[in-house]
Write a structure and sequence with these properties.
single chain; about 290 residues; 11 helices; seven-stranded mixed sheet; two-stranded antiparallel sheet
């Protein structure tokens, strides 16, 4: 598999995109459970089939671009493939001496947002630390561990040690990133509305922001047509982040909803967002208070 990944990493994005689009549609048609969940989640959010339909291919685009993002040579930057929208928000937070908590939904290319920050700000502001859950398959785990630790980018496992690593980064005025619409293990989140339906929601993002005295920025990476690259969109929360866990989770979910409505054709509607949480591990992320 590794040689195949290396081969794909050398392919241009304009070639990987149609391959990924085909993969997305194959998955949609050959998995009734995935197809049903995709349609139910989009309908729950009030998104029409016409607006949600491009997300079928977008799910495949996410898979096909991973080798290019993870395994391209470290001296080959995103360069002309990357554009910014709201970059000044990062500079303003750093000017205030704050660390930054980036909150990114399963929208567009969430892998590219961290790499964009790492390339642009890592050399002067230190690495961005991203929270991740190691893949279950051993071959993918070793690949992810190697690929995600690129220059300016550090990976923190979803454990108590990983949370401490992120807090240290924030207190040093650096940045961290996580996906707040990912379902955490039982005991590590709260139930909060997400598109009008209760969803088990992590509290870690708000905890990091409160404990680290950090700025909170919303970020997502829009895929441009025909493999032209990405636009990293940045914005601030539209409302103050409450101290109370349930209220903070609801606030973050509302922020995620606003981002998703901007581009429903690039959201992972097939993600099992409303599932019951799995049994938690006492060493998992989120156990800190």
């Amino acid at each position: 598999m590794l040689p195949f990944f290396r081969l794909l990493s050398r392919c241009p994005l304009w070639l990987l995109r149609p391959l990924g689009g085909g993969l997305g549609w194959l998955t949609y048609w050959f998995s009734p459970a995935y197809r049903r969940r995709f349609r139910e989640n989009a309908a729950q959010a009030g998104i029409s089939w016409a607006d949600a339909r491009p997300a079928v291919a977008a799910a495949g685009h996410m898979a096909s671009e991973i080798p290019w993002l993870w395994m391209r040579p470290t001296d080959r930057s995103l360069g002309s493939k990357l554009h910014w929208d709201g970059e000044g928000l990062i500079a303003a937070a750093h000017a205030r001496g704050q660390g930054i908590v980036f909150l990114t939904p399963h929208l567009g290319s969430f892998e590219v947002t961290a790499q964009a920050y790492a390339e642009r700000f890592g050399p002067t502001r230190g690495p961005i630390t991203v929270l991740y859950r190691p893949p279950r398959k051993e071959i993918l785990r070793s690949l992810a561990d190697t690929a995600r630790n690129r220059p300016g980018l550090a990976a923190a496992p979803a454990t108590l040690a990983g949370v401490r690593q992120m807090l240290r980064s924030l207190k040093a005025g650096q940045a961290v990133g996580l996906l707040p619409d990912q379902v955490p293990p039982e005991g590590l989140g709260v139930w909060a509305p997400f598109f009008g339906r209760p969803a088990y929601t992590m509290t870690l993002g708000a905890r990091l922001a409160h404990q680290g005295g950090a700025a909170v920025l919303l970020a997502w990476g829009e895929r441009l047509p025909r493999g032209a690259g990405y636009v990293v969109h940045l914005s601030e929360l539209a409302e103050p982040l409450p101290d109370e866990a349930e209220s903070a989770a609801a606030c973050i979910n509302r922020a995620m909803e606003r981002l998703i409505r901007q581009c429903p054709g690039q959201y992972l509607w097939g993600y099992h967002r409303y599932k019951n949480p799995r049994i938690g591990d006492p060493t998992s992320a989120g156990t800190t208070s």
